[in-house]
Amino acid sequence: MNNVTDSFVFLGHWPSAESFGVNTNILATNLINLSVVIGVLIFFGKGVLSDLLDNRKQRILNTIRNSEELRGRAVEQLEKARARLRKIEIEADQFRVNGYSEIEREKMNLINSTYKTLEQLENYKNETIYFEQQRTINQVRQRVFQQALQGALGTLNSCLNNELHLRTINANIGMFGALNEITD
């Protein structure tokens, strides 16, 4: 250890170079060599190291700039997507509301149509019943008239003799002839 401190203490004191020889003090020579190498590296490597650091700095700045641009575009696309989503949600709500109102309108139309159909069916039923009543009444009238006619013919046939029968026919023919002359 004494040699190490001696080499630092006596750095300012160099014996004049009377002879050239090999210094066997490893610590003293390493320290000198190391400081020479570091000095040479700093002197010559300063530009290279500075260029390397500048290049690295520019790549990092470019990457940051590109990342910021990408982030800006992503934020812009996200805002567009959110706006489109809001628009679609509003349209979906409108379709839902319109769908419900359309369903209610169709339901009311169906109910009204069903009531009208039932009303028409009721009218057809009433008309059919009235028609059947009239037909039945007409049939009964015809039967009654036929029976009355048959009864009258039977009574007339039993009451009429040939002479009375011929006079009735002649009277009817005369009335028919008189009607014929009036219409001509």
UniProtKB/TrEMBL annotation:
Membrane topology of the entry: Single-pass membrane protein
Keywords: ATP synthesis, CF(0), Chloroplast, Coiled coil, Hydrogen ion transport, Ion transport, Membrane, Plastid, Thylakoid, Transmembrane, Transmembrane helix, Transport
Coiled-coil intervals: 64-98
GO cellular component, one term: proton-transporting ATP synthase complex
UniProt GO MF annotations: proton-transporting ATP synthase activity, rotational mechanism
Transmembrane segments: 26-49
Localization per record: Membrane; Plastid, Chloroplast thylakoid membrane
Note: In plastids the F-type ATPase is also known as CF(1)CF(0).
Function: F(1)F(0) ATP synthase produces ATP from ADP in the presence of a proton or sodium gradient. F-type ATPases consist of two structural domains, F(1) containing the extramembraneous catalytic core and F(0) containing the membrane proton channel, linked together by a central stalk and a peripheral stalk. During catalysis, ATP synthesis in the catalytic domain of F(1) is coupled via a rotary mechanism of the central stalk subunits to proton translocation.
HAMAP family xrefs: ATP_synth_b_bprime
Family: Belongs to the ATPase B chain family.
Matching PANTHER family: ATP SYNTHASE SUBUNIT B, CHLOROPLASTIC
Assembly and interaction partners: F-type ATPases have 2 components, F(1) - the catalytic core - and F(0) - the membrane proton channel. F(1) has five subunits: alpha(3), beta(3), gamma(1), delta(1), epsilon(1). F(0) has four main subunits: a(1), b(1), b'(1) and c(10-14). The alpha and beta chains form an alternating ring which encloses part of the gamma chain. F(1) is attached to F(0) by a central stalk formed by the gamma and epsilon chains, while a peripheral stalk is formed by the delta, b and b' chains.
Protein's name in the database: ATP synthase subunit b, chloroplastic
Name of the gene this protein is made from: atpF
